[in-house]
């Protein structure tokens, strides 16, 4: 469209693909999201300095943050998304439920009050039955969502949900609702302009999930009667019109036994939007930009035509061995995406790029289109077999196991199917290919220098390879660190509890002298925005604690020593 782009980046993302592709790029500093991408003051400063006229918030971070949308709107900068008032309604999952109810769209039974104590979860569970779901009121994508199977689990799961929500969305409010036992996850893509027009662009099925986060998405949702799909679409438009919505958005439903329930509305572009584009021929990002510029939608509901079937596999840096899906941060030494008719790759990384422990581990999205679902499944299997990623483990083996399973072919799967039915006991992520030390990217050192441009002096920062530092410089070259292996598992029966991946310690659940049993959670580790419980490997007494909250640890590092019970 000929629109110049401005990127922002953290210290870790200085050489990232989005920075390389943008027309301009500005440093935010910091490593974690809190230090960079969700520091609103830093972002507002870049907007002013760059003169940007609009901001596209992407999938996460500030994409559903009404305060940020309001701040930039007051600056005269367009937020490429809904109005702040609509984000307020739909960003708070409780007010979103109430808004849907006002237009006659019923949701999953739940309590519309924020949780302040585990006893409230227990009361709801006793009334409606277990399991129940604790969900982040201002979140999405499965973050800050925990399942409670019994009253005893309520305190731990509420604490975990609040902590995860605060870390990822900056707010820790949570609520509780009934947890359906065997639902399909179906969502409706819609687009609304500033002139009161709103249309839906078909449906997507996102039932192949782990940890309440999607692995495979397909469009349109298969195996559901056409009249129900139409009713879902019309319900989604009602919800959008009811909150004066504009831009792209997604209304999510749970479908079970012929009935559907409103789940939530995501007031942003979805990661899985490409499958909708493939079956409708509509460029959703272009439409977002045109709607933000005040243009009317160029088509109506009757003009939307669904053609064929599309499937997307999220290629995440995770090791699915045994169904654990452990994050696998590290350097991608090689990546090769498949091509061919009906095949699309939306990638965020290239060979040589680093997948950081501090951010989401999505490497890219592999999408295919086929004239029907069977062709699309076959084409995706072929594409996954051709996909090459070395240096980190990926979920590709799990994706293949799903696509080849007769339950998936028969659409006899639900949101619990991957974790409860799919056998991944012999599955492992593609083993990283070892590289010689000489192939490692040379570390760079920051240097402040003065330069003159057209006779004017400037102070600039340079990031210089160590080998290029002048002799006698105080920062002497360091020996290159050897690569650590990936996929390290807990040492069975040793009493030396090690972390299986690089990450940050969120919580140490025990103290020296505590008695533990094999399988008890002793440390909670955050890696790539996911919480991972690290268990004791033997029965015994805690002899030594080698980690503390907030500490960064490497894969294979011993964090706890247990003395075996006699």
Secondary structure elements and their pairing?
Blueprint: E1 6-9, H1 17-21, E2 24-27, H2 40-50, E3 54-55, H3 66-74, E4 78-79, H4 84-91, H5 93-102, E5 110-111, H6 118-128, E6 132-136, E7 146-148, H7 154-169, E8 174-178, E9 184-192, E10 198-210, E11 213-219, H8 226-242, E12 247-256, E13 259-266, H9 273-280, H10 284-292, E14 309-316, E15 318-319, E16 326-327, E17 330-331, E18 334-336, E19 343-347, E20 354-355, E21 362-370, H11 373-386, E22 388-390, H12 396-403, H13 406-409, H14 417-420, E23 444-453, E24 456-465, E25 496-498, E26 503-508, E27 515-516, E28 521-527, E29 530-535, E30 540-545, E31 552-553, E32 558-564
Parallel strand pairs: 1-2, 3-4
Antiparallel strand pairs: 5-8, 6-7, 6-8, 9-10, 9-12, 10-11, 11-14, 12-13, 14-21, 15-16, 17-20, 18-22, 19-21, 23-24, 25-32, 26-28, 26-31, 27-30, 28-29, 30-32
Helix pairs in contact: 3-4, 4-5, 11-12
Task: Give a verbal description of the structure.
- The protein is α+β, with helices and mostly antiparallel strands.
- It folds into 6 domains: 6-78, Rossmann fold, CATH 3.40.50; 79-108 and 186-307, ATP-grasp fold, B domain (D-amino Acid Aminotransferase, Chain A, domain 1, 2-Layer Sandwich); 110-178, 2-Layer Sandwich (Dna Ligase, domain 1); 309-435, D-amino Acid Aminotransferase, Chain A, domain 1 (2-Layer Sandwich), CATH 3.30.470.20; 441-479, no CATH class; 496-564, RNA polymerase II/Efflux pump adaptor protein, barrel-sandwich hybrid domain (OB fold (Dihydrolipoamide Acetyltransferase, E2P), Beta Barrel), CATH 2.40.50.100.
- The protein contains 14 helices and 32 strands.
- The strands form 10 sheets. The chain has an 8-stranded antiparallel beta sheet with strand order 13-12-9-10-11-14-21-19, sandwiched between helices.
- A hairpin with a 2-residue loop joins strand 28 and strand 29.
- Helix 3 (66-74) runs antiparallel to helix 4 and helix 4 (84-91) packs across helix 5.
- The N and C termini lie far apart (71 Å).
